[in-house]
Write a structure and sequence with these properties.
single chain, 253 residues, alpha/beta, Rossmann fold, 7-stranded mixed β-sheet, DNA_Partitioning_ATPase, plasmid, Chromosome segregation ATPase
C-alpha cells in the first residue's frame, strides 16, 4: 500500500496546524496505522506538544535536509513516531537557497523510510517559503486547516495559487485531502457564514470537514503534552478527529 504523505499547510499562523497534526496522528495510530509526525516548523510547536524540549536536541530535521539526508526519529510517543525540530531549521531557508535540486530535498529524505509508515503527517511552517515548498513537493496530499474567521479564510486564494504553481512545476500529483475549519464558535454568526462559504467554494476541491470547535481544552491538553483523546476522551472534538482520520484511510482506496 502506498504511503500517504500529508502536508498540513496554511500560510497563516495560529490556525492550529500543530494541534491538528498531533491529534490526527493519534487518531490514525489508534486505527492500527503506522504514523510518523514530521515537524517542519522552526517554531517547533509540534515537537513541544509531543513532550520533547527542542533546545535539548542535537540532531533534527535541519540536519537531514542540509547535511545527512537521515532523519532523527523519536519512536513510540503515544504510539506515534516523531521527527522533531528546533529553531535551527530556520537556517535551512538560507542554506538551501543555492542548493541543487532543493525542492526535492525532503522527498529524498523521506524516500528510504516510506515502507515503514502508512501515514507521514508534515506540520508545515506558516509561510510560503522554501520549507513549505519542500513539504508540498514531498506530499501526496494536502490538508488545509482554516480558521473560521473571514480574514483568515480570505487568504485561502493565495494558498490555492501556491498549490497550483507546485502542481504545475514540481508535483503534478498533489491532491487535496480536504479542508478543516478550525476554532469554530457556532454562537458567532461570522463563523457560521464563513463555514457555509467554505462549503460552497471549496467542496469542489476536496472535503470540507466538520469544524473543530474553539475550546480552552486544546491549550490545556498540549500543555500536558497529550492528544485530546487521552486528556479528555469525551470532548466532542475527539469524534471530529476520528471522522477525519476515517476519511484519510480511504485516500488510497
Amino acid at each position: 500500500m502506498k504511503t500517504n504523505v500529508i502536508a498540513l499547510f496554511n500560510q497563516a499562523g495560529g490556525v492550529g496546524k500543530s494541534t491538528l497534526t498531533m491529534n490526527l496522528g493519534y487518531a490514525l495510530a489508534k486505527k492500527k496505522k503506522k504514523v510518523l509526525l514530521l515537524d517542519l516548523d522552526p517554531q517547533a510547536s509540534l515537537t513541544t506538544f509531543m513532550g520533547i524540549e527542542p533546545h535539548e536536541l542535537d540532531i533534527t530535521v535541519y540536519d537531514a535536509l542540509v547535511e545527512t539526508f537521515h532523519l532523527n526519529i523519536k519512536n513510540k510517543i503515544h504510539g506515534l513516531d516523531l521527527a522533531p525540530t528546533n529553531i535551527n531549521l530556520s537556517l535551512a531557508e538560507m542554506e538551501l537557497v543555492s542548493a541543487l535540486n532543493r525542492e526535492q530535498r525532503l522527498k529524498q529524505v523521506l524516500f528510504p523510510i516510506l515502507p515503514n509508515y502508512d501515514f507521514i503527517l508534515i506540520d508545515c511552517p506558516p509561510s510560503l517559503g522554501i520549507l513549505s515548498i519542500l513539504a508540498l513537493t514531498a506530499a501526496t496530499h494536502l490538508l488545509v486547516p482554516i480558521e473560521t474567521e473571514f480574514k483568515s479564510y480570505f487568504g485561502t486564494g493565495l494558498l490555492l495559487d501556491t498549490v497550483a504553481r507546485i502542481r504545475r512545476h514540481v508535483n503534478p500529483d498533489l491532491d487535496f485531502a480536504g479542508f478543516v475549519p478550525m476554532k469554530f464558535d457556532k454562537r458567532r454568526s461570522q463563523h457560521l457564514r464563513t463555514y457555509e462559504q467554505m462549503k460552497e467554494e471549496l467542496t469542489k476541491l476536496g472535503t470540507v470537514f466538520t469544524p473543530i470547535p474553539d475550546s480552552t481544552v486544546f491549550p490545556d491538553s498540549t500543555e500536558e503534552r497529550l492528544p485530546l483523546a487521552l486528556y479528555k476522551p469525551k470532548h466532542p472534538a475527539v469524534k471530529v478527529f476520528n471522522d477525519i482520520a476515517k476519511h484519510l484511510l480511504q485516500l488510497n482506496k
